[in-house]
Specification:
five-stranded mixed beta sheet; 21 helices; alpha+beta; single chain
């Protein structure tokens, strides 16, 4: 046995170790109730791939070509001695590991809601038809003296970025479209939810195993051991590292509300997938560029899938589909001129793009047909109840998972009952608060009526009589001191009547029902400025929504309470009131002063803020206080509304 045979065997074992990496990676990223299902599924998947690919797929991929479309000999590994490169069974062993990688990727993307039997049937078609036929178009010449028509066109894919990874990625895309997202993956508002991960350190271990195994994936694809092996391994490592940098940077720019954790994983794997196409052709700097760009592409592709409502449990489509396509196309952009095969760089780019498009049409098209057929015949997805229980129980009747499910179900039932009780109590408290406010307003109206009809009328009569007395004193008595005293008493009565009117306006603002909230606030602020001497400014920056009567009254009282607080506590000389629509269905009421301010952490109920907050809560709004000592105060009150 030559050193070349030994290197290929060792590399094949590296690639086989990828199966362990995929298990750790997938198990780490999914919910614990499905980890047994995923682990066992990966074993069975590799068993099926071994039998189907070796006995059928290898012949289609590397047998003598018929119409340049498929191979037609080496069935059940017969007549391997006809191969020109004398690698024999060593080559079969190496290529089997590649096929196992492609098939495993698909099952991982659809996990947590797909039945085992349909997935295994799909594995048969992927290992025995979809993967080997496209591989024949690119790699048919690796084992026998014949041409592969895509390679003849100038298509370059050294270790399988398109043949292995894009094929798996696009079949995965078809699968997740047909099977649909996991239950509760998106909430009622369309916002994505994290369904929980069983063990992130396990995913880290899986990533390192895959990284390590990739050295065999790319290094072994040379099919011999020479001085280029070191370059291939370095390029592989550089691209993975640059992929992390590209993914993290892209996340920080475009997806700021996401964790960087996903970017680290997907960036590393995306960089590894991308460099697979050109690790033998590029130099380290170009490998860094390919990895960096691929890391960014993977993150943006993940965001695209989320926007489209597509649920990929382990990120297989962005990493393998988009990452592989990016690496294949970027190879034409960065490869040295000696590897262009006599083509211009523009032509090479077009050839690479054409190969990627053909791969997409082939793998995605057959994948859609395959999974749609399975869905309509055998059924593809577990029921909602089975999905809740977890595939550990549904597929493998795992007793420990069943016990965990019963505990979790009991806990969820208790939590749900408690939430219902709390919700009912909150509704009751809101009704009681609303009733209290309505009662207060009725009492205000009654008090205003009593003051107007009683005290108000008496004061008016008193003022009239005092006026008559003042006139009589002037004409009948020449005592200027007495006359001045009587006139002062008349002025006091007049001022008292004005004060009573101000109280009546506050108790029952007539303008509120007659002229609307806008006018009532204007009058309120003018009266506030007139009576206090504090300069006041009102700015209606957006059209006022059409509030209900109860909402109008509460908003008026909130602004009134704000002005009262300023008068009592702020020692301000300037007040600004701004009304503006913040965004669709959200209106902002801002009351600001230039007073003494206060420490926000030391807000007490004596400042009247409790009343403001309670009224805003009844409106579904919220209060934000911006203040500091000697720097004034700004109350930001957001209230939702409907058109």
């Amino acid at each position: 046995m030559s050193i070349n045979h030994l290197w290929i065997i060792v590399s094949a074992c590296f690639v086989f170790f990828m199966q362990a990496g995929f298990v750790c990676y997938e198990v780490g990223f999914i919910q614990s109730k499905n980890v047994i299902s995923v682990a066992i599924e990966n074993i069975i998947t590799f068993v099926i791939t071994t039998l189907v690919y070796c006995f059928i797929g290898f012949a289609l991929m590397f047998g003598n070509s018929h119409w340049a479309f498929f191979g037609s000999n080496f069935w059940f590994l017969n007549n391997l001695f006809q191969a020109h490169n004398s690698l024999g069974f060593v080559f079969v062993f190496f290529e089997l590991m590649f096929a196992g990688t492609a098939v495993t990727i698909v099952s991982g993307s659809m996990t947590e809601r797909t039945r085992l039997l349909p997935l295994l049937i799909a594995d048969v078609f992927l290992a025995g038809l979809i993967y080997p036929l496209y591989g024949h178009w690119v790699w048919a010449d690796l084992y026998t003296n014949q041409s592969a028509w895509l390679k003849q066109m100038g298509f370059m894919d050294f270790a399988g970025a398109t043949v292995v990874h894009c094929t798996a990625g696009w079949v995965s895309l078809a699968g997740i479209i047909i099977v649909g997202p996991r239950k509760d993956k998106w909430d009622a508002h369309g916002k994505i939810k994290k369904l929980g991960r069983s063990n992130i350190p396990f995913a880290v271990l899986g990533t390192f195993i895959l990284w390590f195994s990739w050295f065999g994936f790319n290094g072994g694809s040379l099919l011999e051991f020479n001085d280029r092996v070191g370059l291939i391994l370095l390029n592989t490592n550089f691209s993975a590292a640059a992929g992390v940098a590209g993914a993290v940077l892209t996340t920080s720019i475009f997806i700021k509300d996401h964790s960087y954790m996903e970017a680290v994983f997907s960036g590393a794997l995306g960089g590894l997938v991308a460099i697979t196409a050109g690790s033998n052709y590029l130099y380290p700097f170009q490998a860094v560029m390919v990895g960096f760009i691929a890391g960014a592409v993977v993150v943006l592709a993940s965001l695209l899938l989320e926007k489209l409502g597509l649920d990929d449990a382990v990120g297989a489509v962005p990493i393998h589909g988009f990452g592989g396509a990016a690496g294949t196309i970027l190879l034409a952009l960065f490869t040295p001129a000696e590897f262009l095969g006599g083509q211009t760089r523009i032509v090479k780019i077009l050839v690479q793009v054409s190969g990627v498009i053909l791969n997409f049409v082939w793998a995605f098209g057959l994948g859609l047909l395959l999974f749609y057929t399975i869905k309509k015949t055998l059924g593809l997805r577990v029921t909602e109840e089975e999905e809740d229980k977890g595939l550990n129980i549904v597929e493998f009747a795992d007793i420990y998972s069943w016990q965990d499910y019963l505990k979790m179900t009991h806990y969820e039932n208790l939590t749900q009952d408690l939430n219902l009780k709390i919700h009912a109590q909150n509704q009751l408290l809101q009704k009681q608060a609303k009733l209290l406010v309505e009662t207060q307003e009725h009492e205000r109206i009654k008090l205003a009526r009593d003051i107007h009809d009683g005290v108000g009328q008496s004061l008016a009569a008193l003022k009239l009589q005092l006026g008559m007395i003042a006139n009589r004193v002037k004409t009948e008595y020449k005592d200027n001191g007495l006359s001045n005293q009587v006139e002062g008493t008349v002025s006091l009565a007049t001022q008292t009547i004005e004060d009573i009117r101000a109280v009546l306006f506050n108790l029952k603002p007539a303008f509120l029902s007659e002229k609307g909230l806008n006018t009532a606030i204007e009058v309120l602020i003018k009266n506030f400025e007139k009576t206090t001497g504090i300069k006041s400014e009102f700015n209606l920056l957006s059209e006022m929504p059409s509030w209900e009567d109860a909402a109008i009254l509460n908003i008026y009282r909130v602004i009134q309470e704000c002005l009262t607080n300023i008068l009592k506590h702020a020692h301000a000389t300037m007040v600004k009131v701004n009304f503006v629509e913040l965004k669709k269905n959200l209106y902002l009421f801002q009351v600001s002063d230039n007073g003494v301010g206060f420490e926000a952490d030391g807000v007490h109920t004596g400042l009247g803020l409790n009343s403001i907050q309670e009224r805003l809560q009844m409106l579904g709004g919220r209060l934000q206080i911006i203040t500091a000592e000697d720097q004034g105060t700004s109350l930001m009150m957001e209230v939702p509304f409907e058109y």
